[in-house]
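INFO batch 0412 | record 1 of 1 | parsing
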Amino acid sequence: MSKELEIIVQQDHIESLTRSNGINAISELIWNSLDADANEIRINFEKNVLGKYEYISIEDDGIGLSYQLAEDVFQKLGGSDKKQNNVSPAGRVYHGKEGKGRYKALALGDLVHFDSYQIIDDFSNHFTVAIDKNSLRNPKLSDIETVNGMKKGFKVTINNINDKIANEVFLKDNFRELEERFALYYLSYPYFQIYINNKKLDFDNLIKNQYTEIIKTDINNLTYKFEIKIIEWKFENKRKTYLCNEKGIPFLEATLGIRSSLPISIFIQSIYIESLHRQNELNLAEANPELVKVVEQSKKIAREYVRKRLHYYSKEFIEDLKMSNLYPYHEEAKGNVEIAKRQVFDIVALQINEYLPSFSEQDNISKKLTLSLVKEALETNTASLQKILTEVIGLPDDKKEELAELLEKTSLENMIDTMRLVTDRLDFLSGLELLIYDPEHSKKVKERKHLHKIVVNETWIFGDDYTYGADDLTLKNVLKQYLKDLGRDDFEEVVNSEDNSELETIPDVCLWKQYNLGKADYYENLVIELKRPIKDAGFPEKTQIESYAAKVSNDARFPKEKTKWTFILLTRDIKDELKTSVEQQHRRYGHIIESEHVNVFILRWSDIIQTARSKYKYIKDKLNLNLQTNEDALSLLEEKYKQYLPDDFQ
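INFO prediction complete | emitting tokens
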């Protein structure tokens, strides 16, 4: 005689267990079968002539459920022995933990009938449990009966089907999502089979490629290992991230979190994730800072995987471009940065070819122009690449966003732009050195008309602290007031001799910038006095810069307690008469005055250039860059500062 159980929890809690989408509901029932060591799971459904579902059944050949445990599971909602044991009798890691998964069947239909067969002493014990969604608190448990034979397993039969929820599972395309969800578990336990209306889910031929990377992180004084697995599928998938235990059982899923034209999934496997699952804390994953960091790291790994795979797929297309002489790079890539840049170009070219049907129809001249534009954008400034892809090429928005993310999130954009910056700065230093020290060039260069206007835009050569500055009218007026201390009395003549409008934004022959010291109204003022390349520093120049520095820094318009000053006299060379002044003990070379608020230097251009060159050559070596020739360096100066160079400069 059957008996009626009474679930001793609140009605709303029971109802919450029955809510689910179709994929999650059927997945929970499959996990129950796998946790019971089933090797064969058969899911069947039947529709009537109106296309409505008559029933859904899930039947397995697992070990079944004991009568006593069934009473606990269906009455206490928490009596599952999965709470005490983490593995099944056959050694499989459990997915569930409290036996609540069976209630997800009620998301698919209002009436659920459970049949359990368990072999005891060469006999099969059988009983049933029936649940009506309209009477959730009172499932009906039949008496146990003994049947002949060695039948074992569990069967769930669902009636009064919710067609909308069922369609989320059984429409043909959705089979793939089930295959994706259980594929990683199949890699750990490759001896179970799932059939849907006699059609076998094909786990063996799902995966196109996979990549695994191990990361470790310290959490609560313990070191946990996280295995990040990127799986690329042979079908279009939903692109999700799964948080799994060590065996690949997913406990929580989320969106992939990156844009990818490849059908990939991210599986994050760790015992730490399982521990959160067992403690009912995994649903709060977004509030777990350690886990958030791991998820972000997994996205970075996935982006890099996508970039490399897209480049791999581009090889055949790229080879065709090379054979047709359309590929804009003609020499082998040298160094990691150049290789990365080629990879980005190849990916962009492949995307253009794949997503713009008109590209393949263009003549070779048009194709070559398009590819040259892309190359130029990567060579000069990756920010311009977006504009070219939008206004010139017309790549779809989602593809542009994906490419932008590849550049930004894999640091390729920074690498490429840093490569350009470092190369340009090294070339600038080489060109500047030629202007000052090469006899043929230095005699043509004047400090006001040429050198000053070039260097004012490149204050980085004096150090990172002087990369950015602001103009201040008060500072300009103060500097102009004391110009005679530098022996300059021809300011008006210089201004009026020709169009020197830009001199109005700087004080005569001095470069100057003002830099905030991190507090309101606290500033450092950098003042640089330039001498033309044929002029060397001696006693007169030393006296001039010292007098100038003293008067300017003591001006009442700049309170000493809030203002620091650095004065630099820059010349081609320093005469021997100043040797003792520029080589003082415990000071860097050229530091002639040091006080709390004022520092004065007399430096050679070679000192400035060599310090800057050493720094950028170090970066260059790290990025495997190739310094261009002197001719290239002069070409850069001529191109960038043509208006500031002598007319006969070549």
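INFO post-check: Residues 361 and 367 are 9 Å apart (CA to CA).
INFO record closed
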